[in-house]
Amino acid sequence: MTHNQHGILTTEASIIFPHFTERGELHSKYMEGDRFYIVEKKPYDLIDFNLRLSGTSLKGAVEGAHVVLGSGTMTPVVLSKKHSIYWTPIMSPKSPHCIWVSLAHIRKFVKNKKGEVTVYLKNESTVDLPCSYYKFERRISRAYTLRYKIESNADQVVKVAEPYLKTYYIRKKLGLNYEVEE
């Protein structure tokens, strides 16, 4: 197990667990590929830190996801649209027991004997999570919906450039408004 001072989540990061030190401090333990790292940040703060590196915050990402998905709880967030990195919490993100899962690393999930969920990751690891199968299925479904809607919305903002036929002279008039002259 390696201590990671930076806590930058890459495309290979798959799951974040709470990790309590011997002194009871809450840190994060996350899997990247086939290695585990411990970061001296709470899982909530680790996700927030990584979102801030891209110019937003966990609060902003949740608010943005609510615009796309409608309101809800335990909202998935997009860490990087460019790299298709979507994370979802399995319980309230503020809970010290919250686990975050990266959508890209889930191969499949099944209901286990305890009525909870067993997740099979793409790196061939298996994780039993303290969450009912149906709640987990809803979380993952919302994350897929968020990914689909965000990635399809990207096409709406692209417009093929047309030749410009007019030019303008724009200047401030007296008062508050601007004047446009051809």
TrEMBL record:
Pfam families: ComK. This is Competence protein ComK. The lineage of its organism: Bacteria, Bacillati, Bacillota, Bacilli, Bacillales.
